[in-house]
Each structure stands twice: as structure tokens, then as C-alpha cells.
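Session log. Operator J.P. requested a structure for one protein chain; no other inputs attached. Running the standard single-chain path with C-alpha cell output.
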Amino acid sequence: MNKGLKTGLIALAVVAIAAIGLYSFFAGNYNKMVAMNEQVKAQWGQVENVYQRRLDLVPNLVATVKGYAAHESDTFTKIAEARSKAGGVMNVSDEVLKDPEAFDRFQKAQNELGSALQRLLVVTENYPELKANANFMALQDQLEGTENRIAVERQRFNDVAKTYNVFIQQFPRSIIANMSGFRTKAYFAASEEAQTAPAVKF
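Structure written below.
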């Protein structure tokens, strides 16, 4: 074997090894991004589930309170409007995760509903017989449990989204992410009211 052919084969082997290494790096990181993106979507589904649970509790809670406090129409109207608004953004695709403005609208609508429910529960303080009603107490417990689940699932979403965001932004993976269309996800933030939010318990 002459020297030129030997050098050519070594160069070809080096190029082949480099190409395999580059492919492995690209494919491995791309597949990891896909898996992490799916984790974010799955956790987003959990967030939607707990918000839907709260949305489903509202009519029963309002109906029970109306039986004792029918003249609190302003509060009921605000709840109905907030529920309608939250319901309008409830069945959103995971595309909202790529759009910070859509994500912000979703969060604001859910925060408005949460605030309206807090106002309703504050109003019930004026009705001792309502607070003694077993159905109301059960609904209140369910709402409290749901609010706790919302907080937990939002935190889990933020954790998964942060892991994903850090992974796709680190160099050189950021190149693969940009080429492949992977974008950072928005985070849930505490609402302004959360700083002084009243407890659901009585």
C-alpha cells in the first residue's frame, strides 16, 4: 500500500469518525429535546386538569351560595364573567406554551377567576347558616383542595419548563434547538393578589 493511499484512508476514517460523532451529538440532543418538550406538554395537561376541576366546581358553589345570599348579584355576575373568560381560554392547545402573550392571557383569566372565588367566600362570612350547610362545607373543602393542587401543578410545570429551557439554551445545544424550532416556555408567576391572598378556610 503506497503512502498516499494510506494517508487518504486515514483521512477518510477521521472524517467518518467525526461525521458519526457529529451525528450522534445532534441526534442525541435532538431526541432529548423532544422528550423534554413532551414532559412540558404533559405537565401542561396536568395544569389544565386542575384548572378544569376548579371551573367545574364553580356552578355548584354559586348555586349553593345563591340559596342563602340571593341578593349578592354583583358578586355572582363577576364570578360568571370570570368563569366564562377562564373557560374561553381553557381548551387551548400546547401552542400557547410557545406564545408568551397567550400564556399571559391564560394566567390572567385564571387569576381573575381565583380572585372572584375569593370574594365569594369572603361574602359568605355574612351568612352563618350558609357556613353551617354541609353541601357548602363540602364544596369549600373541594375548592381548597383544588387550589392547593393548582399551586402544586403550577410549580411542577415551572420546574419541568425550567429544566427544558436551560437545556435548549446551553451552547452548543442552542444551535440544534434554534435549527429544530425548539423555543423556551413561559413560567407561571404569582399574581399580584397572591401577596395578600386570603385563605380559603373559614
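Operator note: DSSP finds six helices and no strands in the chain.
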